[in-house]
Amino acid sequence: MNNIEIVQSFFACWSVQDVELASMHYHPDMEYELHSGMSEFPYVGVTRGKAAVRDLLFTIIKDFDYLKYESQINGAEGDIVRARVSFKYQHRQSGEILEGTRRLVFRLKDGLIIRMDRYHDDQLVDAFIRLTQHHVTSAQAEKPPAPRKVARHQRCQIGLVQPPVTRDHDRPGSPRDCGPAQLPREVS
Hints:
disordered C terminus
């Protein structure tokens, strides 16, 4: 796979919250950085190492349900791939919705993602954090929404930009989960 296909494959896995398969696209020396001037946002800063980034992704999906995640590759040059994501998340504890876009810059090495930089709209995220903190601290949040059940066919499919959205996953010939043979190779 070329660098664009590797990033598209990562997006296909991450868009359906399949952390294990998404993290198989990471180099062992992976670095993840969320660029923001807001120190209150829990994911801000640099996370180093494949296992630490994997744990961070699990924390993110513990806090947010992905209602919409649409990626678009903006360009690639050498080992750099630039992308834009339109998203709509539901904060599990408060039920509030965060919707917007973000930019991502991926750097690849040996067929794996070695660095991911995320850029958000700080003012949008700051307003959202204040809103959710208000709900949580004032106990106005109702019962947290139940996590979405992702149908088997909607899980990560390597090389597919967007997972299918049909609900008839039990029909013969329907797509299935990623298999290890389709994943980018690990670097030892």
